[in-house]
Design goal:
459 residues; alpha+beta; 17 strands
């Protein structure tokens, strides 16, 4: 498609986005003329009550938890009933549909307007001669056997090292031994924690690394655009692959490919029963960690900027998407050279309601990027001596979850990035790959919509 075609497409989509957004606003205004502004306040109140109920459900036990669950479920139902009673049974869905259409068109316009560019980190990959793949048969509920990964890999010339279920294996040492024996590629069919350990060895020896989406969640595979429904397709990289250079995270000298979690989630992961009963363990532990703000707090420095009193802190290898509301939960790129930092501090039901209503604008949420993050145990509000608090914090150990693996590390825990340190071999055809979308900017959309074709452009 020519540049002129891209411009025409961007212009048309931008105009559709503006028209759909204007129609959504008009629908809301017409609804307000009929029902009055009270209906909007009722909707916001329902959202706040739902958040309060969710907080009570998570942070308390017994009767308060039951009441919280009832509020969390009942408040949205009550708001829906009010909308229907107020005559919004048609206008509310129509407004939502129009706004969703406006967002979709705006995203398409920004994609079409962007000049195509080839990432410098992508290059043709050489088929390895002595690839070694480490596979965990228990990972992902038995995906290794279910998709015939061992047989497929061996047919492609790879040597497969199978981990023994129920036996603790030093995966990092296994990878180092494979390198010493001449491996020219290391790969893993397993969880993200195992991926990180082997990736560190591959980066150390500047060898290509192969990700096989045989884990449970496969966060790294998702952000690389790999097929998570059929992990056998990841093996196509052995014969027809391209190479990406991606960043590798470092936390206290240990590599991570996705995230390092501190605070509430890290404390829950430490519990031995968590692996077999994740939801039940979390519900049992959360009241002790959240109620009345009694849980352990964390202080951090992100490139020197203080982030204090956090209940939960997540540091990610490159930030998760915030610009594109339809791609939340994944990282648009893995070679940006910056850590993502997400902190949460909710001291009670009122702050939970504020977070639900105001979202990213709430002071309960901290979102930023950094090149170096230093995390310590919180000093507390009633400390008599700043020097004593700093000494106690420096001597403390805190629970940490590194790519979902439970650890306890002495503070301060330092997180950094090794930019483009890892060579990742991926199939040329990656069905999950998505285009990066620029930040949603309505001023830019309006400019595109008002733009007129130049004299040489097609009408």
């Amino acid at each position: 498609m020519s540049r002129a075609d891209h411009s025409d497409r961007a212009r048309s989509l931008a105009r559709c986005a503006v028209l759909a957004a204007a129609a959504a606003v008009l629908v809301v205004l017409l609804s307000l003329l009929r029902t009055g502004p009270l209906i909007i306040l009722q909707g916001l109140a329902g959202l706040a009550v739902c958040a309060v109920g969710a907080w009570w459900f998570l942070a308390h036990r017994g009767v308060v938890r039951v009441l919280g669950g009832a509020l969390a479920v009942g408040a949205p139902a009550a708001v829906l009933a009010l909308f229907l009673y107020g005559g919004l049974w048609f206008t509310a869905p129509a407004g939502v549909a129009l706004w969703a259409g406006a967002l979709a068109c705006a995203r398409g316009a920004l994609r079409a307007d962007r000049r195509p560019e080839r990432p410098a980190a992508v290059r043709p990959g050489r088929p390895p001669r002595r690839p070694v793949l480490i596979m965990n048969p228990a990972s992902g509920g038995g995906k290794v056997a279910r998709f015939g990964l061992v047989e497929r890999a061996e047919a492609l010339g790879a040597r497969v090292l199978l981990l023994t279920p129920g036996t603790r294996t030093d995966v990092e040492e296994l990878a180092r031994k494979a390198v010493a024996e001449g491996a020219d590629l290391l790969g893993v069919a397993g969880g993200d924690g195992t991926q990180a350990l082997v990736a560190a060895v591959a980066a150390e020896h500047d060898l290509p690394f192969l990700v096989i989406s045989a884990g449970t969640r496969n966060h790294l595979a998702m952000d690389l655009g790999l097929d998570r429904s059929d992990p056998s397709r990841c093996l196509d990289a052995l014969t027809d692959g391209v190479e990406l250079r991606v960043d590798l995270g470092d936390v206290a000298g240990r590599a991570f490919v996705n995230t390092v979690s501190f605070g509430v989630y890290a404390a829950i992961v430490q519990r031995p029963e968590y692996r077999d009963a994740k939801a039940g363990t979390a519900l049992d532990a959360l009241p002790d960690l959240l109620a009345g703000g009694a849980g352990e707090r964390l202080d951090a420095l992100a490139d020197g900027l203080p982030v204090t009193g956090q209940q939960a802190l997540l540091v990610s290898n490159n930030p998760y998407s915030a610009a594109d509301p339809l791609e939340v939960g994944r990282r648009p790129r893995l070679d940006g050279g910056e850590l993502g930092v997400l902190g949460i501090r909710v001291d009670g039901a009122a702050q939970a309601a504020d977070l639900a209503v105001r979202g990213a604008l709430s002071p309960a949420l901290t979102v930023l990027t950094s090149r170096r993050v230093e995390v310590r145990a919180g000093a507390g509000d009633d400390s008599d001596s700043a020097a004593d608090s700093a000494a106690d914090s420096a001597a403390a150990s805190i629970p940490v979850a590194v790519d979902g693996e439970a650890l306890t590390l002495p503070t301060p825990v330092v997180c950094t990035l090794r930019p483009r340190a890892l060579r990742v071999l991926v199939p040329r055809n990656r069905p999950g790959a998505v285009d990066q979308v620029p930040e949603l900017n309505w001023r830019r959309i309006a400019t595109l919509a008002l733009d007129r074709p130049g004299p040489g452009a097609r009408a």
